[in-house]
Specification:
Layout: H1 3-6, H2 17-37, H3 40-49, H4 51-62, H5 72-80, E1 82-88, E2 91-98, E3 103-107, H6 121-126, E4 130-134, H7 149-163, E5 166-172, H8 175-184, E6 191-195, H9 202-211, H10 216-230, H11 239-242, E7 250-255, H12 263-272, E8 277-281, H13 293-304, E9 314-315
Parallel strand pairs: 3-4, 3-5, 5-6, 6-7, 7-8, 8-9
Antiparallel strand pairs: 1-2, 2-4
Helix pairs in contact: 3-4, 4-10, 7-8
């Protein structure tokens, strides 16, 4: 009888305490290695000994957002919504729905979550809209780790096809290029509001490279790898390169003291997007502007088409 035929079937044994301890130690070492490679020194060292792996690790880091959680008030609003989980790219996508009527999509920014957009919910409901907020892939309660603004756009399109037609989109920061990309894919929203949008990706690529001490050449090669992963170029998702092709009515709301995304970005988008309007706010920064009553009311009025009072480059009173 052959060795194979005579061999007894392998027995499956329960994992003992020593095995469990060994597994925990191995996972801990892997976690420590990953943490080290995610530091400035670790990534630079990897770049010297294994450049290709360094480019891939840098790409993964660049496209991995930080998870943030809603505060108590935001959480309460999300709890009032009808929670709809749908599948997108093989992962669960968390969707929150309030009310009935024409659909207005709310799209948060990079490393944000749907709760940040909840100040718009009550005024939109009062205006007769169905409000739909989405935790983008890799954000909030949605699954996934690596994502991008291309994924943002495709996810919005997916939700729009599921619950639409879409009347309007209100987007914050990085959610704005995502919304514009969704429009280019056929989302079909009639009106758009961008709060603190950024026009180009260059600043964030440069900031990432500087944070890790990576050369411009290294980042150029890493971003080329990123474009291959996305299946498209950054230019096709950046508002500075696509705004001139759009035709939907657009309201841009931006604060002069926004340190994360300078108001110059909002001004550039307004200048390039045919017929766009810019509403300037003061002393609200990048996130507090989302809770500002004048910002919310202006956005809702614009969605309703009652925006005659918002003139191009209007300077609104300072927030209290």
């Amino acid at each position: 009888m052959s060795q194979i035929a005579s061999s007894a079937s392998p027995k499956i044994r329960p994992i003992g305490r020593s095995s469990e301890s060994s597994i925990r130690q191995s996972l801990a070492r892997l976690g420590q290695a990953a943490a080290f490679l995610s530091t400035r020194g670790g990534l630079k060292l990897l770049g010297r000994v294994a450049p290709e792996r360094a480019h891939e690790w840098a790409r993964r880091l660049y496209f991995t957002p930080q998870r943030t959680r809603p505060d108590a008030e935001q959480h309460a609003w999300l709890q009032r919504a009808h929670r709809l989980d749908t599948r997108f790219d093989g992962h669960a996508l968390a969707v929150y729905v309030w009310g009935e009527g024409p659909v207005v999509l709310l799209n948060h920014g990079w490393s944000g979550h749907a709760g940040q957009m909840t100040p718009f919910v009550a005024p939109l409901l009062s205006a007769g809209y169905k409000v739909v907020a989405v935790d983008m892939p890799g954000h909030g309660a949605s699954a996934g780790e690596q994502t991008s603004f291309v994924h943002f756009g495709r996810a919005l399109l997916h939700v729009g096809k599921l619950l639409g037609p879409v009347e309007a989109v209100i987007a914050h920061s990085g959610g704005s290029p995502g919304a514009a990309f969704a429009q280019s894919l056929g989302l079909g929203a009639r009106r758009l509001v961008f709060v603190a949008p950024f026009s180009r990706f260059d600043r964030f690529v440069d900031f990432f490279g500087a944070s890790y001490g990576l050369s411009a050449r290294f980042m150029q090669q890493t971003m080329a790898r990123g474009e291959r992963w996305l299946g498209t170029s950054f230019d096709k998702a950046a508002l500075a390169y696509t705004a001139w092709m759009r035709h939907e009515p657009l309201l841009v709301i931006h604060c002069a003291d926004d340190r994360l995304v300078p108001i110059a970005d909002g001004e550039e988008i307004t200048r390039l997007w045919p017929g766009a309007r810019l509403m300037r706010r003061e002393k609200l920064g990048h996130l507090r502007v989302l809770r500002d009553l004048q910002t919310v009311n202006a956005a809702v009025d614009f969605v309703r088409g009652a925006s005659a009072a918002i003139d191009r480059d209007e300077r609104t009173p300072e927030a209290a």
